[in-house]
């Protein structure tokens, strides 16, 4: 068995479990250590697959007759293919090439997309879709919300349940913080993937289906902070200090963004870095995304992106004292349609708190130092 980056083998796994590194500089960050064990490889591969807590995870796995408890077996069944990066697993006897198997260009198994969004198979039979040759990104798409990848005019879009992505996008655009843009999904884009019951439920709970375009590619991969922290632990480095060193300005902006949005879901898989596939080097942070759990209606949300325990407010105040971000445009923008009056008033109150900060004498001097 081999782990490949596109068509280049980078790790060889023998039948006895011995792992031989073929290209250290382009290994997944969690595996960049002097001696990679089979246990390390299993853990990395298992972490690539969807959590059983994701909406309709059980339905997806059942439809493909895959284990609900053995995530490594799930990873092997789909070759570990993902849209987050260009890594994949080729088992002995598999003669496929990257061109034949990659998810970026090849047709997807559409009945799995239906299950991902509706919880049921609407139009396709599993046998007709080719159950023995699983070709879907849904098994390696992380997160808890119902979601599904749909190709439109040769481009890939992630459609998901999560109306708050829209006002979060509008707010972050107004304050010029890099993020992924979302839009409401048009009916003609998703109608064939949703049952009538599912449509009624979405409307009934006041939710909406939104979408964003894929921002990774065959050339650029995503590295979560979770994986980066594992890498740092191998070399006794502080992952938070290293994250700040890579791009302190973006790191500080993230603190401000999460406070303004009152976002309680910036866990370690929701922020991180982009990697250049040809070199294996980090090029900076990836844009902020996944704000469908923002605008929570309670205060003192704890930050998940600082080393020390502190609230989102404390982290944002510290960041704003140094960064001096211009937030005045927030007070000039119209209330987003998908936020109620209380939610919007809370956004303005939080931004006003940051606008009233008395800046220290030191001025921000940002540096961007990407890992070599």
UniProtKB/TrEMBL annotation:
Gene3D superfamilies recorded: 1.10.1070.20
Name the record gives this protein: HipA-like C-terminal domain-containing protein
